[in-house]
Design goal:
Blueprint: E1 9-12, E2 15-19, E3 30-33, H1 36-44, H2 51-68, H3 74-89, H4 96-110, H5 115-145, E4 152-156, H6 171-180, E5 185-190, H7 197-208, E6 213-216, H8 221-226, E7 232-235, E8 239-241, E9 246-249, H9 252-261, E10 266-269, E11 275-276, H10 292-295, E12 296-297, E13 300-301, E14 314-317, E15 324-327, E16 330-332, H11 336-345
Parallel strand pairs: 4-5, 4-7, 5-6, 7-10, 8-11, 10-15
Antiparallel strand pairs: 1-2, 2-3, 8-9, 9-14, 12-13, 15-16
Helix pairs in contact: 1-2, 1-3, 2-3, 2-4, 2-5, 3-4, 4-5, 5-6
Length: 348
């Protein structure tokens, strides 16, 4: 079984250890944090990224906050945790997994008996969430692998692999599971400007695991599909609404539109923790990132000074462009409002 040997984030000796993804693919460097404020900076600055990975990183950040606190009553420790929760949550507003991870830890903290019980149970829960993330991705991979055929060439956008999760991956987890099942597959990865998660991370990760991958510029998606180089598309997600609207890395919407034009199935892979069953499309805040990501590459200027820049981190793909949404409990198909509801009911 291809279980990527890359472990994105883990808990070791009461500290959080993560791969610094800003250094990839040139160097594989691990960083260690003992302060939740540093974990918040790591999430904001994309040292760790990908919805499931930042959900678990947020949980680990709160566990650090619990250990850092000098509070001697449960009430004052909960106040310290609430402050830390706010700091961690404000780092990336669009990905729902972060809020989910933080809330899960807060619930455990609230139900603890006393200070030492709270500290212990919060650390235990955060570690459990990391292990569950791997198991969930492997189950998702199994469901998803049935949708892909021998000799498929699968296009993916951004990085929804081991580096976006604790270890196995959502969209790339499906690709790994498809290869594990004995099918021959190839992958086309988009570079995913402006932060290049496709070329720096996806291409690195697939090559690292011996999966056949070709890299294309974002502008070659239409060319690749028109020239029949692509059989199917799979992407991850940072938030999915109950209506089937999918928020994912900027550029996903145009990949889906071009796939529809060429009758190419377009799949999304995400755990149930990525679903937001409450919000409507107009409620979702799209994170806007700094201009320097667009005006230069690796510190080298590629645009005139003082140019206005629009740099959204995510876009929304409407449900009518999506063939299916792969989760750890099965695949939702259109109409999504009904099928997503059924997936959640199966968990009750």
């Amino acid at each position: 079984m291809i279980h990527s040997s890359l472990r994105t984030v883990e808990w070791k000796d009461n500290s959080v250890v993560m791969i610094d993804q800003t250094k990839l693919p040139n160097e594989l460097i691990y960083v260690t944090y003992t302060d939740y404020q540093d974990v918040a900076v790591a999430i904001r600055d994309l040292i760790v990224r990908g919805a499931p990975a930042i959900g678990v990183s947020g949980a680990f950040g709160l566990a650090l906050a619990a250990l850092q606190s000098t509070a001697n009553t449960k009430e004052s420790l909960l106040e310290d945790l609430e402050k830390a929760r706010k700091v961690l949550h404000e780092t990336r507003p669009t990905a729902i997994n972060l809020a989910w991870g933080l809330e899960k830890i807060m619930n455990v903290a609230r139900s603890a008996n006393d200070v030492s019980d709270l500290k212990e149970s919060v650390v235990t829960e955060a570690k459990k969430m990391a292990e569950e993330d791997i198991a969930i991705n492997m189950r998702m991979g199994k469901h998803g692998s049935q949708l892909f055929d021998d000799n498929d060439t699968i296009m993916t956008h951004c990085n929804a692999g081991a580096l976006a999760t604790v270890a196995y991956g959502t969209a790339l987890g499906v690709i790994r599971a498809t290869k594990d099942s004995g099918k021959k597959i190839k992958v086309i990865a988009t570079e995913t400007r402006p932060v290049m998660q496709g070329s720096r991370l996806t291409a690195f990760e697939l090559k690292h695991d011996g999966i056949d991958v070709s890299l294309i510029p974002d502008t070659a998606v239409g060319y690749s599909m028109a020239n029949k180089l692509v059989s199917k598309v799979i992407v991850g997600a940072d938030r999915i609404l109950r209506t089937g609207h999918v928020y994912n890395k900027i550029g996903t919407y145009q990949v889906a539109l071009i796939a529809r034009q060429h009758n190419i199935p377009f799949y999304v892979a995400a755990p149930l923790s990525t679903f937001d069953l409450k919000s409507r499309p107009e409620d979702v805040i799209i994170e806007q990132r700094k201009a320097s990501e667009v005006t230069g590459v690796a510190g080298k200027k590629t645009a005139p000074d003082d140019i206005t820049v629009i740099n959204p981190a995510f876009d929304m793909t409407p449900p009518e462009l999506i063939t299916g949404i792969i989760t750890e409990v099965g695949v939702a198909k259109p109409p999504f409002e009904t099928s997503i509801k059924k997936l959640f009911e199966s968990q009750l």
